[in-house]
Design goal:
The structure is a homodimer. Chain A is of the alpha/beta class. Chain A folds into two domains: 257 residues, Carbamate kinase; 37 residues, no CATH class. Chain A is 39% helix and 26% strand. Chain A contains nine helices and 17 strands. An eight-stranded mixed β-sheet of chain A has the order 3-9-2-1-12-16-17-15, sandwiched between helices. In chain A, α2 packs across α3 and α6 packs parallel to α8. Chain A is globular, with a radius of gyration of 20 Å.
C-alpha cells in the first residue's frame, strides 16, 4: 500500500456554502479514485477564498456594529478548517460508500508551527481583507497593529507574513489515524500558524502556503508520494509563449535551473515546484506529481501530469 | 484506566476570541486534573455563545452587503467546532506539558445524525440570531424558509428544531483516537446535525443539545462515566425556596419522580439530568456525575457533585 499526501487547491472548493457543497462533490471523485487504486490518502487543502470570506464577514460585522468582536486571522483559519473539513469529509464518505469502500474520514484541526525568526515576518506580503482609505488604514495600524500597504489605485489593504512550516503540532494524531486506515483531512489552508513559546503555542496572523505545508506533512509522515492537484494537467515552461512546452518529468537538479530562468509564476506554479522539490530532496526514492484534479488517477498511472524525482 | 466523557458548557468558553483564550486556560486545568487522576478523557463541549457569534457575523455582513454570502447554520456549527477546538486543544496541550503528561490532543470535526422524523422538527423552539421586525421576518420566511417567532416585545427571531442525537458519524474515528491514547475533543456544540439520505448525510438547521450528544457519545463508546460540568456544584431540588436541598446521589428511578415534580429547569438542569439518565440506564454499572467545572477532580473522588446511578 502506497501512502500519498494529496494537496487540493482552495479554488476547487467554491466561494460560498452552496457552491462549495456542489464543487466538493466533484472534487472528491478523483480523490476517491486514488483510494480505489490502493493508495492510502492523506488530504491537505487550501483555504484562500474561504478564509477570505470568513475574515470578511467578521470584518464587516465589526465595522457596522460593535456587537460582534474582531476575529483574529488564526481563528478565522481554524473556522475555515471546520467549514471546509465538514463538506470534504461528508462528500468523501458518500463517495467512498458509493464505491463500496469502507474507509472512515476525519478532519483534524491542525496547528502548524512556524519560526518566529522566519524572515517572512520582516516582510509581510500576503494581502487579506478589504481595501480601505488611508485614514482607516492608519487607524487599523494604530488600534490593531495591522500592517497596511497601498495597492495601485484600489486603496490600502492588510498584509500578513507567509512563513515556512517547521513542524505540525498534531503530527502524532495524524500518524495514529493513518495507521488505523482512516482517510485524514489535515493542514487545511496550510494549517493554523503558531509559534512556540516554552510549553505554549501562540497563534500568529500569517498564511502558510498550503503546498509547503503539504510537503512538510509528506516529509514528516515519510510518505511515498506528494500529489499536488491544480487546474493544469502538466507543469509548463515558456508559459504563454510560442515555445511553451509541457514537462512530463523533471529532476530536482533541473528544477533549480528552470526556477533561475524564471519559468514559474510566483504565487502560482513556483510554490508547487518548490514544495515538490522540498519533499523529493528529503529521501532518494520519493516522487512528487503535479497534475490536474480531474486527471489525478491517470497521473498516478503515469499517463499524464509532471513527475518530480531525484 | 477509567474512560470518561466530560461535557463542558459553552458558557465556560468565552464570548470573543481573546476572552475565550483566557477562559479556556482556566477551563482546561480541572480537565487535565482528571487525566492526571488516571482517567482517559473524551471531551465534549457546548457552543451556544460561539455559534451565535459566528451566525451573527455572517447575518450582519449579509444584511449590509451582498458581497458576503448567507451562511447556513450547520456550517456555522462546523466553524464553531474549528474555532473552539483550536483554543481547547492548544490550551490542553500546554497544560498537559506543564504537568509532564504525554497525551496528544485532537479536535475531530463531528457530524451527529438526527432522525428526519424527529417530532422536534414539527415544533422548532431553539432561537438563533437577531431580532427583526415583522416585515423582515416575513421576507426571511419567504426567501430562506426560516421559521420566525415573535418574542415578547423584542420582535421576531428565527427558531430551529432541537432533535435528539441518534448516531455519531465519526464514531469509528473517535474510537481509534481513544484506543491510541489521545485526548479527543468531539461533538462540539452537540455536533453538526445531519440527516441520512441513502449514502449521504445532509446538514440541517438544528441544535442538538450538547448534554444529549455527550450522553450518546458516552453510550456508543460504552465508557464508565459521563461527567457533566456546569456552574453549580450539585443538583438541587426545591431550587430557590426555603426547602432548597443539594443532592449527593440519585438513582434513575428517583429522577423520574423529581422530574415529574418539576424540580429541574427546562433548558438548564433538566437536559443534564435527562442526559445522565439516558446514559446510566443503558448498562448496570454506569455512573454519571453532575458537578462544577472547578470541583471536577473532587467530584470524581466522591467529595462533591451529584452522582447518578442505577
Amino acid at each position: 500500500m502506497r501512502k500519498i499526501v494529496v494537496a487540493l487547491g482552495g479554488n476547487a472548493l467554491g466561494h460560498n456554502s452552496q457552491d462549495q457543497i456542489e464543487k466538493v462533490k466533484h472534487a472528491v471523485k478523483p480523490i476517491v479514485e486514488l483510494v480505489e487504486q490502493g493508495n492510502e490518502v492523506i488530504l491537505a487543502h487550501g483555504n484562500g477564498p474561504q478564509v477570505g470570506m470568513i475574515n470578511l464577514a467578521f470584518e464587516t460585522s465589526y465595522n457596522v456594529s460593535n456587537k460582534n468582536p474582531d476575529m483574529p486571522f488564526p481563528e478565522c483559519g481554524a473556522m475555515s478548517q471546520g467549514y471546509i473539513g465538514y463538506h470534504l469529509q461528508n462528500a468523501l464518505l458518500t463517495e467512498l460508500k458509493n464505491k463500496g469502500l469502507k474507509q472512515h474520514v476525519a478532519t483534524i484541526i491542525t496547528q502548524v508551527e512556524v519560526d518566529k525568526n522566519d524572515p517572512a515576518f520582516q516582510n509581510p506580503t500576503k494581502p487579506i481583507g478589504k481595501f480601505y482609505d488611508l485614514e482607516t488604514a492608519d487607524r487599523f495600524t494604530k488600534e490593531k497593529g495591522y500592517i497596511m500597504v497601498e495597492d495601485a489605485s484600489r486603496g490600502y489593504r492588510r498584509v500578513v507574513a507567509s512563513p515556512k512550516p517547521v513542524n505540525i503540532v498534531e503530527l502524532e494524531i495524524i500518524k495514529s489515524m493513518v495507521k488505523a486506515g482512516h482517510l485524514v483531512i489535515t493542514v487545511g489552508g496550510g494549517g493554523i500558524p503558531v509559534i512556540k513559546e516554552g510549553n505554549e503555542f501562540i497563534g500568529v496572523p500569517a498564511v502558510i502556503d498550503k503546498d509547503f505545508a503539504s510537503a512538510k506533512l509528506a516529509d514528516l509522515l515519510d510518505v511515498d508520494m506528494l500529489v499536488i492537484l491544480t487546474a493544469v494537467n502538466k507543469v509548463k515552461i515558456n508559459f504563454n509563449t510560442p515555445e511553451e512546452k509541457d514537462l512530463d518529468s523533471i529532476t530536482i537538479k533541473e528544477i533549480d535551473e528552470l526556477i533561475s530562468q524564471g519559468h514559474f509564476l510566483k504565487g502560482s506554479m513556483l510554490p508547487k515546484i518548490e514544495a515538490a522539490k522540498m519533499f523529493v530532496s528529503g529521501k532518494k526514492h520519493r516522487t512528487a506529481i503535479i497534475a490536474s484534479l480531474e486527471e489525478a488517477k491517470e497521473a498516478l498511472l503515469g499517463h499524464t501530469g509532471t513527475r518530480i524525482t531525484n
